[in-house]
Write a structure and sequence with these properties.
The complex is a heterodimer of chains A (198) and B (135). Chain A is mainly α and 198 residues long. Chain A contains eight helices and no strands. The chains are: A mainly alpha (198), B mainly alpha (135).
């Protein structure tokens, strides 16, 4: 299929095209899914190299599963989030907890973005967020990231985490409370001590 | 006071999460993307071999039921509607010749009832050939 026609093609269709031998479909699907999966796994694992390994394994499973994919039954992105979630959990269980993402690991901003000072402050806020996320229990962290950063709806998160929608609501609510408490301890570190207090 | 109420706006979890969501996901580096694409190529099923064109069997056209269908079936047996019409005409003609009054037939052939067949001279000029001659 011509390259310029694949931009509007659904993930479902791209996966079927891949299974039928269309190399361009693989490229389009990789460019579409890999950054999101990498961002998600990076926030869960807090390590770029580990996140890349997880995404590579998840994409491998996606390609292997492609011939058996039945369009319309599920979303490819949901399926991939689920695999990434499980792989992240496996990694977390298999190793000791590693430090959260440092400033050096923070994602690069696109060129032409905010100036240096604004960017530095943004980096600090994102680092603080990642540190606070790292304090959450695994399932809470996954639920919060999927809901509030990846933008998934609760029913979709329920599919990803293989739990009920009510459990998702509970996880995200508790996660937000824990996150708030964790961030309150970061205020002094980030120079906000004394601000906003009565 | 609750912790979130004392928090500065810059550290409000909702705002931080919204800010993180607005950021574009990290761009995978080219080496990593090359690894992913190599995996995709390695695991991609081969293109299906082009097959020779096959005859397509079209479903039979629906024909109206009843007498029309019977006539069509008969026409197919006898080689078409034209052949069937010719055979029907021959049948009707034969039947007519079989049941028609002789007077009608003689009028058709130009013969009369007054001239019985045993006196009809079919070969009037050949009588001499049948006469026995004595040497």
């Amino acid at each position: 299929m011509p390259k310029d026609t694949l931009g509007d093609v659904s993930d479902d269709t791209l996966l079927v095209l891949y299974a039928n031998g269309d190399a361009e479909a693989a490229r389009t699907l990789t460019l579409r899914l890999a950054p999101r999966a990498l961002g998600y796994s990076g926030r869960i694992l807090g390590d770029r190299a580990e996140a890349e390994d997880v995404v590579q394994e998840a994409m491998l499973r996606l390609w292997r599963m492609a011939p058996d994919w039945r369009p319309g039954e599920a979303q490819v992105s949901t399926w991939l989030y689920r695999v990434v979630s499980n792989l992240c959990l496996d990694r977390k269980r298999a190793q000791k907890r590693r430090p959260a993402v440092t400033l050096d690991d923070a994602p690069d901003l696109a060129a032409g973005g905010p100036d240096a000072v604004t960017r530095m402050m943004q980096d600090q806020r994102m680092a603080a967020l990642n540190d606070a996320l790292a304090t959450l229990p695994e399932r809470q962290r996954q639920a919060v990231v999927l809901r509030h950063i990846e933008g998934l709806a609760n029913p979709e998160i329920a599919l990803v985490l293989d739990i009920g929608v009510e459990a998702v609501e509970s996880l995200t609510a508790r996660g937000k409370r824990t996150l708030t408490a964790a961030l309150s301890g970061k205020r002094a570190t980030l120079g906000y001590l004394g601000e906003g207090e009565d | 006071m609750e912790p979130n109420e004392k928090m500065t706006p810059m550290l409000d979890p909702d705002r931080l999460l919204a800010e993180a969501a607005a950021l574009a996901p990290p761009l995978p580096d080219t080496v990593f993307m090359a690894r992913l694409m190599a995996d995709a190529r390695r695991l991609q099923p081969p293109l299906p071999m082009p097959s020779s064109p096959r005859a397509v069997v079209l479903p039979a056209l629906a024909r109206p039921g009843g007498r029309g269908a019977l006539l069509d079936a008969l026409a197919d047996v006898f080689g078409g509607r034209g052949a069937l019409a010719a055979m029907m005409l021959a049948t009707v003609t034969g039947f007519y010749l079989g049941v028609a009054q002789p007077s009608v037939l003689t009028s058709l052939t130009g013969l009369s009832r007054e001239a019985p067949l045993d006196t009809l001279d079919l070969m009037s000029g050949s009588d001499g050939l049948w006469k026995e001659t004595t040497p």
